[in-house]
Specification:
The protein has 23 helices and 10 strands. With 572 residues, the protein is of the alpha/beta class.
């Protein structure tokens, strides 16, 4: 990312705070100017107070001056830093809000190809680095620049002969900073990537902790984590080492200047004790801001690398929503017409797939893993778009439907049973807590056979269920997901292994509820447990992306084909 692109990205978020930034900058300049006057005041104190002619009034005057200068500088600096911190945190918030809004608009294929750890790293670590450029780096640059400018002018004013030695330092500093910038930026980019990989590994180990324990994979996972953390350490060390070399090079050069001042002021130049102290103090005060100007390159290069990561995320292509047609309620008459689809080139998942589903009909789709069952659902919900062919609902090509119209008519229960760290009510009324009545929520729980365990909870419907419903059993989570689908009351119902986590007795109860729920709704059931689909109006048998059999359970058994073999294998 170029400096221009980074500034453009940052300006988008700080432009509304320009007034505050100008105010904080002016205050910091005033604070720095006051602080830079300390060497001259110190010299005058030595010359005028530490001699026989000093008076009590002069002592009081200089005491008040030094106290006033330092106090005002501290107050200006405090206000400047506080205001700037407010701006920086507001910028962080605004960037994260925009990134989260973007996250919600990204297509499913983005999440399929990007680990959650890397996404989390972008929204947490990378944004913080950009915030540093919006706050700390900016003020540090102003303070250091103004300090160096004032002190250099002061040093030439006090003694131009001695000050000429400073000119030798400048080209060396420039060369050091320029040569280190590209190395820092490359290493910083590697740090961002390594932290994203590490965050992903952490997320996997947290969510899969029980699996790791059962398979005794602790050492394997620890070795992976050690390797990843070592990568982060190595890349950060490269950045820190480059910054340290630059910083200490400045120390050596300024140390040489201080030595020259001591030598020449003692033997070659006539200076009073106060003049020497003023000059020496000013030169010593140059060390910190000079080092700051050199070291500021490190966080700035880190911010550039983070800016590139954040910018790439914000520029990701959003989910297509070109459909203009809006329909409030669909009947659910579905037609798949000559669908060709592949996730990768030359690897067809659906091959000339065609299927008609009448409104209110219940169909089941079965077949081996990789036959295209889940892909059909992804295409129907517009998570993916077929390479060729069309899908119609009520005679309308879904390409012409806006995503809201389509998805508001579809309810979904999958085998993953994704729940949210919220109350039972919020999970059942997902996205509609503000408009869905409690009666609807409760009725849905009753139909899903979930009311019994909910009533036994201390807070009942107000119970927080934990991350992905971890405070509930597998069967309870499944019933809650079914209740959520019932509450939506959509025209089209998709059940993907919806009863897979239920015990036999509970499954029978839920199957009765599902039978009631599917009345007058177009229902698509994907199932491996074939006992759950025997009452479907039609069973579609898929293999290698093509329909090889179709019919009722009884007719397919009589045909003694592939479906019959699947049933036989399952009951062996």
């Amino acid at each position: 990312m170029s400096y221009k692109e980074f500034i453009k990205l940052l300006y988008k978020y700080i432009s509304q705070h320009i007034g505050k930034l100008i105010f904080t900058s002016l205050l910091m300049i005033l604070a720095t100017a006051l602080e830079s006057s300390v060497p001259e005041i110190t010299g005058q104190i030595v010359d005028k107070l530490f001699n026989a002619e000093r008076s009590s009034s002069t002592t009081v005057l200089y005491s008040l001056i030094i106290f006033g200068v330092i106090s005002l500088s501290a107050i200006f600096s405090l206000v400047s830093l506080s205001t700037n911190s407010w701006v920086a945190n507001k910028v962080v918030m605004d960037i994260r809000v925009d990134m989260f809004k973007k996250l919600l608009k990204l297509p499913k294929n983005f999440f399929d190809r990007t680990s959650s750890g890397k996404i989390l790293s972008k929204l947490t670590f990378d944004v913080e680095q950009i915030a540093g450029a919006a706050s700390t780096i900016w003020l540090d640059f102003i303070k250091a620049s103004v300090t160096v400018f004032i002190l250099v002018i002061y040093l030439f004013y006090k003694n131009w002969q001695l000050s000429l030695s400073l000119i030798v330092i400048l080209p060396i500093v420039f060369i050091a900073v320029k040569s280190s910038s590209s190395r820092m930026r490359n290493s910083s980019s590697q740090v961002q990537k390594s932290i994203g990989d590490m965050t992903h590994l952490l997320e996997e180990n947290i969510s899969g902790n029980s699996v790791i324990k059962i398979f005794e994979a602790e050492k394997y996972e620890k070795d992976k984590f050690d390797h990843q953390v070592n990568n982060v350490r190595q890349q950060r060390f490269k950045v820190d080492l480059t910054a340290a070399v630059n910083s200490n090079l400045i120390n050596i050069l300024l140390g040489l200047s201080l030595a020259m001042v001591v030598y020449f002021s003692s033997f070659s130049l006539q200076m009073t004790a106060g003049e020497f102290l003023s000059y020496f103090t000013a030169l010593a005060m140059l060390i910190k801001p000079a080092k700051t100007l050199v070291n500021i390159n490190k966080p700035f290069q880190v911010a550039l690398a983070a800016g590139q990561s954040v910018s790439a995320f914000l520029n990701e292509e959003e989910e297509s929503n070109n459909g203009k047609k809006s329909v409030k309620k669909l009947n659910g008459d579905i037609i798949f017409e000559n669908i060709l689809f592949s996730y990768e080139p030359n690897k067809l998942v659906l091959n000339n797939f065609s299927l008609s589903v009448k409104a209110g009909e219940t169909i089941a789709i079965v077949g081996p893993t990789g036959s295209g069952k889940t892909t059909i659902i992804d295409l129907l919900t517009k998570f993916y778009t077929p390479q060729s062919g069309s899908i119609f609902i009520d005679g309308i090509d879904i390409k012409k439907l806006n995503n809201h119209s389509l998805r508001s008519n579809i309810a979904f229960v999958d085998q993953g049973t994704r729940l949210f760290n919220d109350t039972i009510t919020a999970n059942i009324a997902l996205g509609k807590s503000d408009v869905m009545s409690f009666e609807t929520v409760k009725e849905s729980a009753v139909k899903a056979e979930a009311i019994e365990f909910i009533d036994n909870l201390e807070k009942q419907f107000d119970t927080d269920i934990g991350d992905n419903g971890q405070l509930l059993s597998g069967g309870q989570r499944q019933r809650l997901a079914i209740a959520r689908a019932i509450a939506k009351d959509a025209s089209i119902l998709i059940l993907d292994e919806a009863t897979s986590a239920l015990d036999s007795s509970t499954e029978k109860l839920v199957q009765k509820s599902i039978a009631k729920m599917t009345q007058n709704k177009t229902t698509i059931i994907i199932a491996h447990r074939l006992s759950t689909i025997q009452n479907a109006d039609r069973i579609i048998v898929l293999k290698s992306g093509e329909i090889i059999e179709e019919g009722t359970h009884e007719s397919l058994i009589k045909n003694n084909g592939y479906y019959s073999q699947l049933v036989e294998d399952q009951y062996k």
